[in-house]
Amino acid sequence: MAWFYLVLAGVLEVVWAFYMKKSAGFTLLVPSAITIVTMIASFALLSVAMRSLPLGTAYTIWTGIGAVGAFAVGVVVLGEAATPMRLAAGALIVSGIVLMKLSSNAA
C-alpha cells in the first residue's frame, strides 16, 4: 500500500505544479486553491508512504515522479520544448527512479 500512496503523492505533485503555473503567482483563486489542496494531499500521502519506505527511496521517487510528470505536462499541455537534451534528462530521471525502486527491493 505504501507504494500506491507514494505514486499517488507523486501524481498529485504534478497536479499542484501545473496549477501553480496556472495560478499566475497565486493571483487566481481557483488554480491557487487547487494548488494548495493538492500540495497538502501530496505531502500527506508522502508522509504515510514514509512510514514503511526508506526516506531516500520515498523522497527520490516522489520528486522524480513530480519532475518527469511536470516535464511531460509542460511539453504536452503547455507546449514547452521537447529538445533532445531535455528528453535525455527526463530519461535519466526515470532511470534513477527505476534503480531506486529496484534497490529498495534488494534491501
Automatic annotation (TrEMBL):
> Where is it localised?
Cell membrane
Membrane spanning segments where?
Answer: 27-46, 58-79, 85-102
Pfam families on file: Multi_Drug_Res
The annotated topology with respect to the bilayer is:
Multi-pass membrane protein
* Keyword check for DNA-binding: no
Q: Which GO terms describe its biological process?
A: xenobiotic detoxification by transmembrane export across the plasma membrane
Q: Which family does it belong to?
A: Belongs to the drug/metabolite transporter (DMT) superfamily. Small multidrug resistance (SMR) (TC 2.A.7.1) family. Gdx/SugE subfamily.
Which named protein is this? Answer: Guanidinium exporter
The species is Pseudaminobacter soli
